[in-house]
Amino acid sequence: MSDAAPTEGTPQVVGHDDVSQEHLAEVATTDAALELPPEQSGFGEGVVGEVLLSIENLSKSFGSVQANRDISLDVRRGEIVALLGENGAGKSTLVNQIFGLITPDTGTVSIKGDATPIKDPKDAIARGIGMVHQHFQLVPVMTVAENMMLGHEQTRGAGVLDLEAARRMVRELSAKHGLAVDPDSEVEALPVGTQQRVEILKALSRRVDLLILDEPTAVLTPQETDELLGVMRELANSGTSIVFITHKLREVLAVADRVYVLRQGAVVGEVATKDTDAKGLATMMVGREVVLSIDKTAATPGETVLEIEDLHVRDDRALGAVNGFSLTVRAGEIVGVAGVEGNGQRELVEALAGMRKVVSGRMTLGSLDLTRANPHQTHHAGVGHVPEDREKHGLVGSYSIADNLVLNEFDQPPYAKSGVRQFDAVREHAETVREEFDIRSSGVFQTAESLSGGNKQKVVVAREMSFKPKLLMAAQPTRGVDVGSIEFIHRRIVEARDEGAAVLLVSAELDEILSLSDRIAVVHGGRVVAEMDVADADRTEIGRLMAGDH
What we know:
- The protein is an alpha/beta fold.
- Helix content is about 30%, strand content about 25%.
- It has helices at about 90-100, 120-125, 145-150, 165-175, 190-205, 220-235, 250-255, 280-285, 345-350, 375-380, 390-395, 400-405, 425-435, 455-465, 485-500, 510-515, 540-545, and strands spanning about 50-60, 65-75, 80-85, 105-110, 130, 155, 160, 210-215, 240-245, 260-265, 265-270, 305-315, 320-330, 335-340, 360-365, 370, 385, 415, 420, 470-475, 500-505, 520-525, 525-535.
- Helix 14 (about 455-465) packs parallel to helix 15 (about 485-500).
């Protein structure tokens, strides 16, 4: 860490001096996230009591990978503690040990002073610990009441399930915690926000003292997120302790009492939220001041580059995912697609990239019809594609950085001549791009799989931007990357716009959409339900439209 004295209001990192040399990933925040929305300003601090959870020197390894090392932290009764850290920083491994899903190698987890090892989730539940996982653990074809009673079924008579008791439990818990749910609804028919409520109610039905929430807002609309944060504060006020994993600083500052930052499996910092702000947290995590705002001039849109007309595309289950989608994107503008994940965004981008068949409708790039084009044809028509899953669709992990940077052009001059690879040209191109896009590595022949998440993303962004596409499709461009990389990628997207590219931005982060876009298309049910200039955009209205209220 720098020897310079910290600026006023900036928390110091406790311990680990190497934090300044590394970037913390998974904090996809922008200038829109720096101030709490008015609807969050009423949260008061809960009454914090005795230590409920105490972790001392906890370590866990998987083979040669040390997921947690000497972690010590505590959570008091009625306190909300947030865990921040990059992908692979050890957050999920840590909470899985608290819940008994993983056995620690060394160290202790004490609940209300009892350091007896937690054997399994059943033991954790018996000791007052509940957990809501990032990926819902519900049975889709069962009703809410049936899901609620799984694992602690009540019977009456000759072993007959007492469903009425389960329904009554749902109603009582719903009323007590302000989480309205119909006990007779089938889970698969519920919106994701309501499914999240079911998960929380299921955990609360076990009379928990400590509730663990792993990325609870990842698939929620802004209104659902605000509602959940309110519920969390009410739970804390009533004495329930909460451990909260998130990557959204706005939410941390809105609801958490304290924050622990994890890096490479260890705690590198702790701070009370009342003593910091988003910039302070970012500085603590990255070790330098980070520009979270996006500096861009007003767009000057030109001719229409992309036109999508009444597009229909099916998902992997052969069900309609894109259902009559229509949109235009012009040169020199960024059009952001805002919507809750699962409303056809992935299928739309894959269809535009030539990766998924179109059922009906039309997609044109200028005068070229892309409706039946394959990925090779789409790329050479002038489409750059930053996929949402860089590991699966963006990189060949075993290939070098240099080879990944020419994946789309490996058989074209100057990288190939008469079918023969021109290795010097590939290397020279890679060295130029590596420097331009700040890809941090030991050299251009380092394998892509050995890079950090942020640098992997930079390789993909560099490849797709360096050939100056007519249309740049950026799907979740900053997912799982560090603050510094987010800052860099945002700047490059704006530069692509300013150089005349049409940019289609698809992001689950509404803050990112609001900050980067010139125009916003709100999607629900696989179609555009509203379009607006960003100057006219209202966060609450967009959230309402995302939820299907239109």
